[in-house]
Amino acid sequence: MPGSNDFTIDIGDEAICTPDAKVTTPRGWGLTTALNRNSTLISDWTPFGLVASYFVFSTCLYMYCSENLIAVFWFIYMCTNFYIAGATVLEAFMSITPCREARKIVAQAEEKGWLFPTPHDQLLVLDLLIVAYLPNEQDIILDRALYALEQIDYPRSKIRINILYNTPRVIEPLETKLHQLPLKYPHARVIKVPDSTSKADNLNYFFTLDTGSDLIAIYDCDHYPHPNGPRWAVERFIADQDIDIVQGRCVVFNSEDTFLTSMIAVEFDKIYAVSHPGRATMWGFGLFCGSNGYWRTSLLRELKMDGDMLTEDIDSALRAFSRGSKTVHDLNVTSYELAPTTFAAFWKQRLRWAQGWAQASIKHFKMVYNKPQEPLHSDHNRNFTARFGVLSLLLIREISYYLVTQYTCLVLSFVIVKFPSSGEELWKLVYFQYPVSQWLFVVSIICLVATLWITNKVKSEFISRKMIVLFSIQYPFYLILMATIGLYGHARQIVKYSSWNPTARK
């Protein structure tokens, strides 16, 4: 019983009962614990050693290369950087049309007094899921649940707000408060998922339940969905029966907390308002991004989530695309979320994303050349544009980590071997070693400025122009950091690192 001094500990085949806190352990227990601790330590630090060795070896190699060989490497890296910048700005320009369409739809709805096309009684039945890991999100889950239950503007007879959570220990009085929510809000459902250790486990458990819904929306616990977000998403499904997934726009609302959160907020505006819609227009396919995404229930229950993948959301999105699903990015389906406030939390989050993307890229690269298996739509045939988009997303993006870091090592070798005595010499050394560099560098800068200009046009209310300017100034260092994180993710994948580190919440 709770509060009693008696307790039982199972060790192997023995059960040791004792009335006090003294526990007798079998011989060899300490050795096993030490070995496990050392094994974990090696697993944690081996990726760091691999990445550090990579940088040291690459820099030293360039220090001993001939001038002609250096010129070849320089040209290759500048050309690839130009390609990356060019593809980014093309995606940005492609995003202009979806942005205009989203604004036009909002203007039309406003003119009609915010009367949506579909009558309430003809709306689709929606299960909205809020997925949480309580020890990490215990301070915010009740607030987010109450917000969703009270603020989301959708007929309550057509929506169920589901709070799915797992926890390794009982947390009271929070859990009691959560399970009392359905008494006050009939459209609430609170589920403590048994034996769950991840978001994927929580979702897969829910998919076994027969709730009678037409659509399922997935939200991480730190999100505040816009009150009209679900309605916008459902209207898209009703307007186009071929749509299988609607991915909304995620906006960081704690941009003013720290310099880091302000940079992440600009990055998210660039990704969700520019890159994702632009890529979907350019390559012909969109992606579910893990939160603020709406699925047809039948498809999601069929695919489920792969618990062996660190980014089960990207994996499920690619599996859906391999079946020929149609995913659209709707900028009016908005949700507001928290960015990590410390670099340590940011580092852990991005390392998990990097390794997860590496896993997904290895698993799904075959879509570049194979035929769709059991397509959802009879007329689906993956065309050349979509295949090249997959190649760019899964292979070129992963290779770009090496190109960016190799360029960095090359520049570092120049600084070591030919250390400049002035800022002007450093500038020429880094960017203008060879005449072609001037043109490639200038064009790349123009592409960056154009991309950020478009981002400024669609920035959220939490972003200022000052933040965008600061983001553009530190962007080269950001690229190097993200490329290093990408390499770290590859190193973790090599050593089969499998720990799931949830993002810290406040």
UniProtKB/TrEMBL annotation:
CC per GO annotation: membrane
SUPFAM superfamilies: Nucleotide-diphospho-sugar transferases
Membrane topology: Multi-pass membrane protein
Location of this chain's protein in the cell: Membrane
Domain Glycosyltransferase 2-like residue range list: 216-453
Organism: Massariosphaeria phaeospora
Molecular function in Gene Ontology: aspartic-type endopeptidase activity; glycosyltransferase activity
Name by which UniProt lists this protein: N-acetylglucosaminyltransferas-like protein
Keywords noted in UniProt: Glycosyltransferase, Membrane, Transferase, Transmembrane, Transmembrane helix
GO BP annotation list: proteolysis
Top-level taxon in the UniProt lineage: Eukaryota
Residues that span the membrane, as ranges: 45-64, 70-94, 399-417, 437-455, 467-491
